[in-house]
Amino acid sequence: MAATVVPPHAAFFGAKKEIGTRSSFSPSISAHRCRKHSLNKVLAVMAPTQPSRAPATTGSVKHGMTMTEKILAKSSDRAKLEPGENIWVNIDVLMTHDVCGPGTIGIFKKEFGKNAKVWDREKIVIIPDHYIFTSDERANRNVDIIRDFALEQNIKYFYDIKDLSNFKVNPDYKGVCHVALAQEGHCRPGEVLLGTDSHTCNAGAFGQFATGIGNTDAGFVMGTGKLLLKVPPTMRFVLDGEMPHYLLAKDLILQIIGEITVAGATYKSMEFVGSTVESLNMEERMTLCNMVVEAGGKNGVVPPDETTFKYLEGKTSVDYEPVYSDESAKYISEYRFDVSKLEPVVAKPHSPDNRALARECKDVKIDRVYIGSCTGGKTEDFMAAAKVFLASGKKVKVPTFLVPATQKVWMDLYSLPVPGSGGKTCSQIFEEAGCDTPASPSCGACLGGPRDTYARMNEPMVCVSTTNRNFPGRMGHKEGQIYLASPYTAAASALTGYVTDPREFVP
Amino acid sequence: MATTQAPVPVSTIRASSQRLQCPIKTHSLHFATNSSNFDKLVKASLSLKQSRKKTLTIPHATPSSSPSPPTTFHGQCYVLGDNIDTDQIIPAEHLTLVPSKPDEYKKLGSFAFSGLPSSLYPIPFIEPGTDSTQYLIIIAGANFGCGSSLEHAPVALGAAGVQAVVAESYARTFFRNSLATGAVYPLELEQEGVNKQCTTGDIVTVDLERNVFINHTKGKEFVLKPIGDAGPVIAAGGMFAYARKTGMIP
C-alpha cells in the first residue's frame, strides 16, 4: 500500500497574487545602506542601475526567460514561468555534510519513517568537511551518524573519513563540499542542486541553479526528490574589460557586494556575464558565485561555455543540457562594470559589504593571514598566493595559515609547477616564504569551529583571510577582526604585516 | 516561561518542543514509486488558482482538535540592530549539536545569541547559569538572520523560548527555515527604524489579529505586515506538522 502526498498549498509560502508575508520579499525590496562608505576614489566603473527592459509588445515574440527561470521551468516541467511563482522543482542533486547531515537524517526518519528509503541513492552526495580534524566528540559522532546512514541507504557518493590523524590514508575523503562537488563532476549545466550549506550557490558557476537550504527542507527532498521553491527575479551583472593582472574574481565579487550591500540581492538571482566573466577559469567563476549569498542572493549563474565543458570532460558521465538566457529575458536590474578600472579591495570588519580599497588600509597592522575555504582555498587561489611570494622572494612577517579545500588541491600544491618559478611547486614556495605547512583539507577555521580547530582565532586578532564572511566571531573570537581579501592581497599582506595592495609585489 | 498579562493560548508555547516531546506518528511514504501520483496532485493543486480555497481548505478546528493559532504574544523584548548574522545568533562551534535530539535541542537554546559582542549588547540574552531567555520577543533591524542557511539559527531561538521575531526584513534562509521548522514567528514591520525606538526590557505585545506591535513601556504602536498563511504553519510546528494536521499528508 503506497501512500501519496498532497503538497502544501502554494499559498503557504505566499502565492504571488496574495498578500502574504512572502510577497513582502518580492523584487521591490530596497537595499539598506547600513553604514557609511569610506571615500572611494575608483572612478566611473558602474553605470547607474537601469529599470528592467520593456517587455516585447508584439504577440508573436516568445516569452523570454533568464537562465535561472529557464532552469527552474525545465526542472518543474513547465513551458514558462515568472519570478514570484511558487513551483515544485525536481532536484537533481542533494548535498549534505557533517554539520547538517545528522539533523537532516533525523528529520527524514521522523517524517518518512525509520525504515524509509531516500528518493534516489545516486542523487544524494554526503560530504564530511566542516568539523573533521578535531577531538570534539560530538563532531566525530556526527561523521559516524552520516556514515551509518550512507551504509544503510547504500548512498553512492559518500566521501568518508575514518582516520583523522592522517587524511591521506582515507582514499574516499575529499574535503570542502562545494569544491568536491565540482571536482567530482556533480555540478552540471542546466541542473538543480540543493545543499545544506549557504555556499551551495558556488555551483552556479556551472550554469545551474544551486542554493542553500535548511535541514527540514533537505529532509523533505531526501524523501521526495522535490521542493517547493519560489522563482527569483534576476539581477544582471555585466563585467567587461580586460582583467588587470593584479585582480582576481574575489576582488570582483567584493566590489559588487560593496555596491549592492549584504541585502542587495535578497531573494534574487545574480547573473554574471560579460567579456571578463568569459575570460575567467572555472575556479574563478566559482569564487564569484560562492559569495552570492553574502549579498543575500538566492543563487548565482554564469553561462556555460567551452571553459565549462572542458572542465567537465572526464568528470561526469551524466548527460547535461546547457541553458541560456533569452535575448528578450527580463531582468529586475542591471549593473555594468568596467573591470579594467577596478582596484584590489577588501571587506573590512565586520561585514562583507564594508568595502575599502586595499591600498587605503595600508596602515592596518595584522596578526595573521588565512588562505583557505571554498571561497579561497582552491588550487588557483594557492597558485595566485604563490606567485606573490615568488615575486617578492622574502619571508612572511606574520603566521600564514594554508588550508587546501580538498585532497586534490593539497596534491596540486605539492605537484603542480608554478609558472615562472623554474619548476617549483606551491608547497616549496610557501615553505621558502615561511608559511605554515599546508594543513589537512577541510573548512577549517573559516567558521571558527570546535576550539581545537587549526588556525581558529581564540584571542582577539586582526586577520586577512580569503574566506567569505567576517561578521563578529566568524573565525572564533567575538572581538577578532577579519579583512576579507583575494589570495593576492592576502599573500601581499602576509609579506608586510599590514593590509597590502598586491601591486606592491605583482608588478 | 515568562509571566504574561494577556492570556496566551497553549499552542503558542514552543510548538516545536511539543513536536519533539510527543512525536507525531509517522507512516512510511513511498515517493519513488508514486511520482506519478505526486505529479497528478501537484498539477491539480497548482492549476486551481481561483478555487484554491475550496480544494485545499484548512480544516476548521473541531472541539477535540488543537486550539486555533495564537493571536498575541506578550512579554519583554530584546533589541538588536541590522544584519544580525547566524554566527551571532548561534556561534558555529555549537553546530555540532543536532537539533532533532531533544537534549541537544535544549542545549542549543542555551547558546542563543551568545555570539553577540558584549560591547554592543551588554545585557546577556540568557542569564548565566540558566538555559532559556526571559525575552520572548526579539526586535531587530534589517536583514535579520543573514549568513548561513543552517536551521540552527531559528531553532536555537525557539529552543531558548523566543516566540516571535519582529524585524524590518529577513534573509531568505532565516525566513524559510523559520517556517519549515515552526521555531519562531518571523514578523515584518511596515516602517524602518522601529528597533531604534525600543529598548531591551521594554514590555511589548505582538497582536497578529490586528497586525500591530505595541511597545507599552514607550507607549508606541507600529504596523506589522500580515503573516498570512505562514501563521498556521508555524503554529502547527512547521512544514511537516502542518501538512499532517491539515490532512495533506496521511
TrEMBL record, chain A:
Quote any Pfam family the record assigns: Aconitase
In its UniProt record, a GO molecular function of this protein is: 4 iron, 4 sulfur cluster binding
Q: What residue intervals traverse the membrane? A: none
Keywords of this protein's UniProt record, alphabetized? Answer: 4Fe-4S, Iron, Iron-sulfur, Lyase, Metal-binding
Identify the residues that the record assigns to the Aconitase/3-isopropylmalate dehydratase large subunit alpha/beta/alpha domain, covering every copy: 70-356, 360-497
Q: Does the keyword Metal-binding apply?
A: yes
Annotated GO biological processes are: amino acid biosynthetic process; oxoacid metabolic process
The record ties this protein, via InterPro entries, to:
Acnase/IPM_dHydase_lsu_aba_1/3, Acoase/IPM_deHydtase_lsu_aba, Aconitase_4Fe-4S_dom, Homoacnase/IPMdehydase_lsu, IPM_dehydratase_rel_enz, IPMI_cat
Q: Report whether Nucleotidyltransferase shows up as a keyword of the record.
A: no
PANTHER family tied to this protein: HOMOACONITASE, MITOCHONDRIAL, HOMOACONITASE, MITOCHONDRIAL-RELATED
What this protein is called in its record is: Aconitase/3-isopropylmalate dehydratase large subunit alpha/beta/alpha domain-containing protein
Species of the source = Rhynchospora tenuis
From TrEMBL, chain B:
One Gene Ontology BP term is: glucosinolate biosynthetic process
Q: In which pathway does it act?
A: Amino-acid biosynthesis; L-leucine biosynthesis; L-leucine from 3-methyl-2-oxobutanoate: step 2/4
Its Enzyme Commission number? 4.2.1.33
The protein's matches in Pfam families, at most eight in alphabetical order, are given as:
Aconitase_C (PF00694)
**Which GO-annotated molecular functions does the record name?**
3-isopropylmalate dehydratase activity
- What does the record give as the reaction this protein catalyses? (2R,3S)-3-isopropylmalate = (2S)-2-isopropylmalate
Residue span, Aconitase A/isopropylmalate dehydratase small subunit swivel domain? 133-191
Q: Could you tell me the keywords of this UniProt record?
A: Lyase
**Cellular component aspect of the GO annotation:** chloroplast stroma
* Family indicated by similarity: Belongs to the LeuD family.
Known partners and oligomeric status: Heterodimer of the large LEUC/IIL1 subunit and the small LEUD (SSU1, SSU2 or SSU3) subunits.
Q: What is this protein called?
A: 3-isopropylmalate dehydratase
Q: What organism does the record attribute this protein to? A: Rhynchospora tenuis
Provide the organism lineage as a comma list: Eukaryota, Viridiplantae, Streptophyta, Embryophyta, Tracheophyta
